[in-house]
Design goal:
TIM Barrel; nine-stranded parallel β-sheet; 13% strand
Length: 285
Amino acid sequence: MTVETGTSGQEQTDRPSPLAARFAATRAEGRAALVGYLTAFDPTRAASFERLCAACEAGLDVLELGVPFSDPSADGPTIQAAMVRALASGATVAGTLELAARLRRRFDTPIVLFSYTNPLLRFGVDELLAAATAAQIAGLLLVDLPPEHAAKLREPARARGLDWVGLVAPTTTPHRRASVLAGASGFVYAVSLTGVTGAALDPADARLHQALAELRAATALPVVVGFGVRTPDDVHALARSADGVVVGSALVEAGNRGPAELGALVAELRAATARDGSRDQANIG
């Protein structure tokens, strides 16, 4: 999983984006991608980088790197607490991008910048995209920016070669879903439940699997499911219906117990991504 990468940043080419290439690779391996969320600067810059390295080394396929924000309305108590710690340690958008750049010099793991809109707009659109490109960010995921108002950031980002991840919730109507999908690239994030991150989830719920099947039928993009996913059993149950599975709060909690425990959990989750019933075959990272 470790690779030395260049520093020239992303450019518009005919090659697939880093996210498209990663999902193609996991599909060829007969498994879902393991997507993991961690908050930058939690609990400090140095400790955060150590945790990020542990997660990537253990086999994370895609990293969602959280930009700390004071009002994370979509996130549950675990990630909210992580953001409080990160802000207290001096987290900034610039600092988050510096962490991403350091990580990309060591690993080929595609990084999606996971954020709310306000910190990015305050940083400045041009400044953000220049820094994100230099840091080799693969895409942006903004949880509170509806498609009707996204063009100001989405179009310049995509012109720079960054993917724009769309979100579809259980309450999203077919008409609304079409609007989200029209502007999305990289992958589509299927929110599994009407709640916040870390909430209780029934991964065997037939309605969830049906919703994932309908979403996959509506788009050629990979569909990744998240919110409430915590255990290898959760991942294994969802891997048959999605192109990727997101784990967030459980990784943050494991990181609080140390990089070794975080790495061990990532390895267990990665081993659960196989779709053929065999977890051992997926444990290849």
